[in-house]
Design brief:
alpha+beta; 46% helix
Length: 153
């Protein structure tokens, strides 16, 4: 019986802690700006046309492990610049700009800039202090590297 009470007490404490984190995160999140900018760059050992083909491949975009975020292309200058905007979301929005520049030796310098907006105060707190604004870009770049390496560049 004591073990059951101890487990129930621990669960109750955990629930109270989670509620307090949610409340504190929402309060702190309200003080954070809705908009943010996150940028990452990477040099890839393939030409810009190859990177362009991959980042425009619907199968790759579905498989990259970021979820089912719907986007629309609002700017496209193949194979140099691609701008996509998030659509049909109520908790977040914004654009991703991918800029591709040829590097000496046949590689590509890819710069991804997220001009993001997070409308929910608690999610702003989580994105800023727990997950980080760069996480989605980092995940995308890692998936892009794996994809290119698996296909020999």
């Amino acid at each position: 019986m004591e073990i059951v009470l101890a487990v129930l007490g621990a669960l109750a404490a955990l629930v109270i802690l989670l509620v307090l984190v949610f409340i504190a995160g929402s309060v702190v999140g309200r003080s954070l700006p809705v908009g943010h900018v996150a940028t990452r760059s990477v040099t890839l050992a393939v030409p810009p046309e190859r990177v362009w083909d991959v980042i425009n491949d619907p199968a790759f975009m579905r498989s990259r492990g970021v979820g089912d975020v719907k986007t629309e292309t609002v700017g496209s200058v193949p194979p140099r610049r691609l701008v996509r905007r998030i659509v049909d979301e109520t908790d977040f929005g914004g654009t991703w700009t991918s800029e591709l520049n040829a590097e000496p030796g046949g590689g590509t310098r890819l710069v991804i800039t997220e001009n993001g907006e997070i409308y929910n105060a608690f999610f702003r707190f989580v994105s800023r202090y727990i997950v980080g604004h760069h996480r989605t870009i980092d995940s995308f770049i890692a998936a892009l590297r794996r994809h290119l390496e698996a296909r020999g560049g």
